[in-house]
Each structure stands twice: as C-alpha cells, then as structure tokens.
Amino acid sequence: MSRFTDLRGRASVFAVGLLLSTAVVGLTGAMNAEAGTLSKVAFGKTPDGKTVDLYVLQNGRITVKISTYGAIITSIEVPDRDGKLDDVVLGFDDLTGYLGKHPYFGATVGRVANRVAKGKFTLNGHEYTLATNNGPNALHGGLKGFDKVVWKAEELESGDGPSVRLSYTSPDGEEGYPGNLSVSILFTVTADDKLKIEYAAETDKATPVNLSNHSYFNLGGKNSDTIRDHEITLNADRYTPVDDTLIPTGEIAPVADTPYDLRKPTVIGARIDRLQNEPRGFDHNFVLNNPDGKLTLAAHVYDPKSGRVLEVSTTEPGVQFYTGNFLDGTDKGKGGVAYKQHQAICLETQHFPDSINHPSFPNTVLEPGKKFSQTTVYTFSTR
Ligand code: BGC
To answer: Is 348 annotated as catalytic?
Structure first.
C-alpha cells in the first residue's frame, strides 16, 4: 500500500498561484547565481569523545550550516530586501548549546517525529513500548532520538549545488522501535536559493517512520524577538484536532470558519489571539492539499519588516505549524538571547501525529524491501 492513502484535497487556486510565484522566484535566483561552495569546520566533541563537524553550504547569497550531531541545521543566512544578511533560525553559537536540553532547535527528528500516544503501539500483533518524554506521550523519537546521535557525512557536488549526505543506522530496539533502520538525508543548497532536504530510509523489520526537520524560523533575523507580525499562508483545507495532550482525536476537520483557516495570508499574532489553548498559539497538524504525495507548496511566510519570504514545499501529507508556544525565556541561544514565546515558527513537514495508532491516517509503517522517501524544499526570496 502506498504511504499516502487517498485522502482527497482539492488543490486551490491559491496553491497554483503560489507555485507559479515559486517558479518565478527560482528563475530570478538562477540568473544571479554564483558558484556554490562546500566547506567543513570542526564543531567540537560529544561527551563520549565523538568528533562533530559543521558543514557550510553556500551559493554566493545564502549560507546554511549543518552539524553532524543531530543532523541539525544550526544557521541559515539569507539577505533581506536591501541585501543585508541575517540568520533566520534559532539555535546556539556552539556545540555545547546543542548538547544540552533544548526544544529540538534545527534538529532532524525521528525515528518518529511528533507524538505517539502513551508511547505505545501494536504492529503485526506485537505491542511496543517507547519512553514517554512529553507528559503521557512519546515525542520526536524518544529520550535519545535522531537529534542526539552523530551522523556520518559524505560531501557531494550534485548537479543542483553543494550537498552533504548524512547517514545513520538506528539499531533494532533503539528507543523501543523495531528493526535496523538505515537513514540518509541529503541537504543541498541550490543556485536558485533553495535548501532541499531529501530523506531516505530502509528497514529489516516493519517499523513506523516519520522524519522531519525542526527548524525555528524568524525571518526578521537574530534581533527579531517575535513572529507575531509575520504573515502565513498554509495550503491546507483541513487539520487534525487534538486532545489536551496534543494527540489527534482522529477527526479530520475542515478549517473553514475556524481560526485554523490560514488559506489566505494571515497575520500570525492577530490569529493567535483568537485561539483558546494554553500555552497559547498554533501547535497543530494541517492536512496539506497534496493528495498524490508530489512536491507541492505547503506554506508561504512573509516578514513585512525585512521583506524576507520563505516558501516550504513538500511531498508529505501534513505540516505541524508550531508558533514556539513553549519558549519561555529559559533557552539562551545565539548571542545569549533568551528565546521568548512566539519568537519563531516551525513548519514540520510530516505524516500526521500518532499515525501509528490511527489506521485512517496516511500510513507510516515502512516494510522491509520498501524505501521510505520524503523531500522538503525551503525557498528563500524577498519582496
Ligand atoms: C510540538 C510541540 C513541541 C515542540 C518542541 C513540536 O513539534 O508539536 O508541542 O513543544 O515540537 O518539542
């Protein structure tokens, strides 16, 4: 069975319009492109002595840094409308920050991104138990998920631009999951200002797999302390309502006539003020209008102050739109800045939360002999 069941969503005029605008931005970028470069710098060592490197991918305008610890995106520098560069993701200045406790800044999350209810699931008649690290539930792969292991790196020059491939084999039973799972992730910075992430995985036993990246974006750059003034558009007619532990109820509800209707450009802060949840803000999985699993526009974000635009396209059926509701000043990030509530947004392209316990959701079980793949593309531009 395909990993994408036939959840039908009608591609809206909005999606077509934005896809066209992506193409136009891409062309403009390509014309200005300079040659891409790839370099590696030492980032430090883990407490058990493993060497960690930082890969720096550049195309002459944008620079992306990726750590072999956690396959973490530590920095994305992009120009504003006046050409001024700034870093648009939250994180830390050094490896020590990432080795400590933090809410997945820039990290690759897996083996199963998002929540598994009560840390339990049954597969092929066997009940599996995972560590519960988020109230009663399991979150983002467990106590030592893919964000906390050192990945092997291979430098590549793909036709698209400088690339690094990170690989990791998660052993059978790791964090309670069945099967040896080999994962590889190809990060590429293209000449037309895209950061492309291509995930692949294979297993020797059936296992749930859901891989995502947990970057926290603030398009205003390092000194911007809120995303309330950013505008968001999501290509989603439906979302998955949750209980008070953020586990989907199983319902797939229309966004029409609710505060979750983000199909037209919407100022995030004003919309957060219409929500009732605590801590207040978006932390919801949106069902993308992407019934065929082809690379399709999921989100468009615009920061009116800097003019920066981020577009996210994905092959995945869902995106967790999270507005940093749990940031409360305890995480001191780059430059010692204490990250506050609503200082950033995450757009975690993914299968739906707790899919393994919801047979009606798109399937997350990877069988031996099959290949898992997911592609997500972040396009940066200005207006
Ligand atoms: C979750 C949030 C969580 C955050 C950091 C998001 O994917 O939906 O509830 O606080 O990750 O762990």
So the answer is: yes
* Whether residue 322 has its Cβ less than 6 Å from ligand 1: yes
pTM score: 0.91
| 127-132 long-range contacts, CB within 8 A, separation 24+ | 128/176, 128/177, 128/178, 129/176, 130/175, 130/176, 130/177, 131/175, 131/176
Helices within 169-215 (DSSP H only): none
Instruction: Evaluate: CB of 310 within 6 angstroms of ligand 1.
Output: no
Structure tokens at 114: 């998002």
Torsional sign, CA 339, 343, 349, 355: positive
CA distances (Å), 195 to each of 66, 164, 261, 303, 377, in order? 11, 12, 27, 19, 6
Q: How many helices (H) and strands (E) does the chain have?
A: 3, 27
Confidence category of residue 147, pLDDT binned at 50, 70, 90: very high
202 in catalytic set: no
- Is the minimum distance from the CB of 348 to ligand 1 under 6 angstroms? yes
Rounded to 5°, angle at Cα 339 from 108 and 151: 20
pLDDT for residue 357 is more than 90: yes
CB 364 within 8 A of CB 209: yes
Q: DSSP label at 363?
A: P
DSSP run (H or E) holding 64 = strand 63-67
Structure tokens at 367: 């069988």
pLDDT, tens digit, 9 for 90 and up, residues 272-300: 999 999 999 999 999 999 989 999 999 99
| Alpha helices, H only, the chain | 13-32, 95-99, 268-272
Helix or strand or coil: residue 374?
A: strand
| Least confident piece of the model among 34-48, 92-106, 193-207, 247-261 | 34-48
CA of 38 to the centre of ligand 1 (A): 31
Q: Is residue 91 helix, strand or coil?
A: coil
